[in-house]
Amino acid sequence: MPAGLLPIIYLAFISLGLPDSAIGSAWPVMAPALGAGISWVGAVNMIICCGTIASSLMSVRVVELFGTGKVTAASVALTALALAGFSLADSFWQLCLLAVPYGLGAGAVDAALNTYVAVHYESQHMSWLHCMWGIGASAGPLIMAMCISGGSWSQGFLVLGGIQVAISVVLTLSLPLWRDRALPSVEKAAGDVQDKRRSRRALLRVAGVPSVLICFFCYCALESTCGNWAATFCTLARGIDAETAASWASLFYIGITAGRAVSGFISMRLRDHHMIRLGQLLIALGVVLVIVPAGDRALIAGLLLIGAGCAPIYPSIIHATPYRFGEDVALELTGMQMAVAYVGSLVMSPLFGVLAQMVGAELYPLYLAVILVVMIAAAEHLNAVMRRARS
């Protein structure tokens, strides 16, 4: 592989993480300014998720037509356009409209880059790749908090959009490095005109695929709910001011970032399914700390631990995909995993918003606990299927 390509891929994942938590961090002050309800942010997230689901499912065809490099550069440019638009929005419907290019920009590049690294690089690089996403996701709320303290959430989106533009330029200049780097699922043997892809229906009949999809659904449901609603929980349930709550929301992403930096080294010794179990244990400990009424220090530690627990799960599931199911279906199956993951975000994070408005934001840690239990059950069923297959 070209020596300069891996840092470019890392940079692309920073760009994916930057805007992920920005809306959730800014929403406590955005909602009154736009005349919106607390739960309305769920509609914006749903539109974003619909776009990412659509582009994830189309990722194989898009990468075949344009290549991973061009897809990545164009996707980052789309998110930059959406963020710049967010900074100018003065009504809720405009946010909903701009959520469409944001969602489309995220899905295809996510599936393509994850598969690219899973096939061509070792396990630790997958963890460090998603560590780069965590750097972006941690920086987003901090940038937003600084801009809110200066009196302008719209400036926060403008700054994030400007960073995305700069990253898009770098990715465009790097396009020569991506030549002749096709993925196994889109390669054809010499003289072979027969497409190697399996249909999604056929993949769903493969042992273990439904379980891994459920696991992905639950993981992203937990991650998105935790990240999107951390600031709201801190403000409404714990009485913390909006500026502090926005910065505390970044603790979850800081936990993910630091956890993925460390898990890259741990993954040299532990297999993917062990990394997943370790992450689930840390999430459980973090949820307990958020639930217990032990003050702000326990809350801070809980958010950090939940993030650290999330750290190895996503990259380990992705990295195990070619090994578990074969390189020839890796891109197609990763696209399906991304789509189902975003369905988890699409359904479960907005659902919590409705519950928070009807019952109270105090449900936040209990909601996370229920999702975690289902994820553990799906992951252990998948492990059992894989053991039977190997034996």
Unreliably modeled segments? 185-195
What's the total helix number? 16
CATH homologous superfamily designation: MFS general substrate transporter like domains
Radius of gyration: 20 Å
Question: Helix and strand string, N-terminal first?
Answer: HHHHHHHHHHHHHHHH
Strand tally, please? Answer: 0
- The CATH topology comes to Growth Hormone, Chain: A
Q: What's the end-to-end separation, in Å?
A: 35 Å
Helix content: over 70%
What's the number of domains? Answer: 1
| Major sheet size, sense and barrel closure | none
> Which CATH class applies here?
Mainly Alpha
Q: What is the percentage of strand-forming residues?
A: under 5%
Mean pLDDT: 82
> In the CATH classification, which architecture applies?
Up-down Bundle
Name the structural class.
Answer: mainly alpha
Using the alpha-carbon principal axes, give the shape: globular
Describe the structure.
This protein is mainly α and 391 residues long. The chain has one domain: Growth Hormone, Chain: A (Up-down Bundle). 80% of the residues lie in helices and 0% in strands. It contains 16 helices and no strands. The protein has helices spanning 5-17, 22-34, 41-57, 59-66, 68-88, 92-120, 123-149, 153-173, 200-204, 209-236, 242-266, 272-291, 296-310, 313-325, 330-358, 364-390. Helix 4 crosses helix 6 (92-120) and helix 12 (272-291) packs antiparallel against helix 16. The longest helix has 29 residues, at 92-120. The two termini are 35 Å apart. Residues 185-195 have low confidence and may be disordered.
